[in-house]
Amino acid sequence: MEELLFTKIPVVATLTAVFFLLTAAQTLHALFLGARKSGRPISAATVYEALLVVHLYLATATMLSAYANHGTLLLHLRVTALPLSTLL
Q1: What DSSP element (H or E) covers 55?
Q2: Coil vs helix vs strand at 83
């Protein structure tokens, strides 16, 4: 994973934008799937789509951390920073 720190800035910026757009689209898709009128309140497909959103968010956070290039890949939260290699 640390190889991302040596990637060129235009590549990292493009991947960040792509992952961000994928995360936004997948979030909308999961919300529309969850808002459907069906007999069951939460289906397995809704849970799967929500887990895809989390995975895409982690990919976006990885690229943002590689763009910041502090030497390690971290998921920066308000209070703490978690290493992304263990989360992925």
Answers
A1: helix 44-68
A2: strand
